[in-house]
């Protein structure tokens, strides 16, 4: 099962018998690191949130795999699930933060309180959409066409935002 394509692994998983779990585990192993890095950029590098969103992402993929029309598009499909799941988590976190603030309770962890590496600190300072574009290009190795389609941006806007974000990161490094 080492050298099977995504299409073959998706088809085996859809059979829901025999080695279906093993086939899906292979897909998980193939993409989990990239998806986790993408999620980390979306949820401010909080490891417990990343783990939760990653688990929810692949559970959703497992349960809704029959909805995947083009079996060769498994990876972009999972990225979309990850983005939607991360956005749901962030909306819920914001709601909880708003309630906590109203109740004058202690504020939850902020990005500054997290122990972030240098790269993560630079990315956290970017606009969320720019951060997503940089992660999709640098970590997920998506083309600008794929990024534009995923985020609903014009191709030129994706390129411009990517290069401006890189310039901002580079200027922070030189400080």
What low-confidence regions span 5 or more consecutive residues with pLDDT below 50? 100-115
CA distance, first residue to last residue: 49 Å
Please give the radius of gyration in angstroms.
18 Å
Helical content band? over 70%
Bin the strand percentage: under 5%
Provide the residue-averaged pLDDT. 83
Q: Describe the largest sheet.
A: none
Task: Give the SSE order as H and E letters.
Answer: HHHHHHHH
- Give me the count of strands: 0
- Structural class estimated from helices and strands: mainly alpha
The number of distinct helices, counting runs of at least 4 residues, comes to: 8
Question: What gross morphology would you assign?
Answer: globular
Question: What features would you describe in this structure?
Answer:
With 175 residues, the chain is mainly α. The protein is 71% helix and 0% strand. It contains 8 helices and no strands. The chain has helices at residues 6-14, 20-42, 47-64, 74-102, 118-124, 128-138, 144-151, 155-173. Helix 2 packs across helix 3. It is globular. The N and C termini lie far apart (49 Å). The relative contact order is 0.11.
């Amino acid at each position: 099962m080492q050298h099977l394509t995504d299409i073959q692994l998706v088809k085996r998983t859809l059979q829901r018998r025999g080695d279906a779990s093993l086939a899906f585990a292979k897909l998980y192993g193939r993409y989990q690191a990239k998806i986790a890095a993408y999620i980390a950029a979306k949820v401010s590098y909080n490891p417990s949130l990343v783990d939760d969103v990653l688990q929810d992402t692949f559970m959703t993929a497992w349960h809704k795999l029959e909805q995947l029309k083009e079996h060769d598009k498994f990876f972009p499909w999972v990225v979309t699930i990850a983005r939607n799941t991360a956005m749901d988590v962030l909306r819920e976190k914001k709601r909880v933060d708003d309630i906590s603030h109203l109740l004058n309770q202690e504020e939850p962890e902020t990005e500054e309180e997290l122990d972030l590496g240098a790269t993560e600190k630079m990315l956290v300072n970017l606009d969320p959409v720019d951060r997503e574009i940089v992660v999709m290009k640098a970590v997920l190795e998506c083309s600008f066409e794929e990024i534009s389609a995923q985020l609903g941006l014009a191709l030129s806007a994706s390129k411009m935002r990517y290069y401006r974000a890189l310039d901002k990161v580079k200027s922070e490094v030189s400080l």
